Amino acid sequence: MHHLMHRHLGKVVAGAAIALTGTAAMAAITLPSDAGAADGTAGRNRPGAVGAPAPGRDQGPPPPPGIVEGARPQGERGRGRDPLTDDELRRAQDLALPRTPRGAAADVTGRPGPERLTTDLAELAPSEVALADPPRRALVSFYDYKSDSYLTRTVNLTTSKVESTDTQHGVQPPPSHAEAVEAARLLIAAPLGSGLRQDYRDATGRDLTGPDPLSVTGFVYRGRAEGEAPGALGDCGEHRCIRLFTKVKNGRWIDTRRFVIDLSARTVARLG
Prior knowledge:
The protein is built from four helices and nine strands; from the N terminus they run ααββββααβββββ. The protein is of the alpha+beta class. The strands form two sheets. Strands 5, 6, 7, 8 and 9 form a five-stranded antiparallel β-sheet that branches. β3 (149-156) and β4 form a beta hairpin. The longest helix has 29 residues, at 2-30. The model is unreliable at 1-54 (pLDDT under 50).
């Protein structure tokens, strides 16, 4: 009996030791990262120790709130391979915009002027790479829905001149956000958009009358270049055709990938 009690007492003591060890481990984990020292005296109330102060000790005023610094002001002009500044972006887009008669070009909604796509810093010529202050150029791209053409212009921001212009047909760069939103608007209004409207109502309990409640991302559909393109899809590739990833803002995804929106003809078709 004495032997059994001794064994039981041993288990109790061992269990208590394990419990204490576990408590110490938890305390070590929950202490602030700066509450220790390299000499193994972490958590002790020694002079100069960093950690919990002794009871009644004045802890001093709380630290001041953090301050978020604003972005540094941009100059009007970047240098070398710096990204284009806001001022350079505006100048490049204004200089590159084709000066054509009203109605000679159209954007995705049919308004005068081509649809602006991208504005990027242009590459330097090999002879300019070693220059201390090389010229700054921007490559600006547009899509003209009047002629279904892809237009790129190189603008020299140092001289404020358009140095080159290239126009291509049958070239379909990735769509802009504005084009994806317009594609969603056409799909919502089309008879084929009834499934999208019903899915939105099922998800939210509200009617879908426009693209604002949706988050949309567009990707190009090139028609026959991607395989079979029956019926109304046969012009895609020459026309500007878009498919969509569609999501309720702060909500669920709605699968619209099988629909093709021809932004040039402003029609909607379905794959398969």
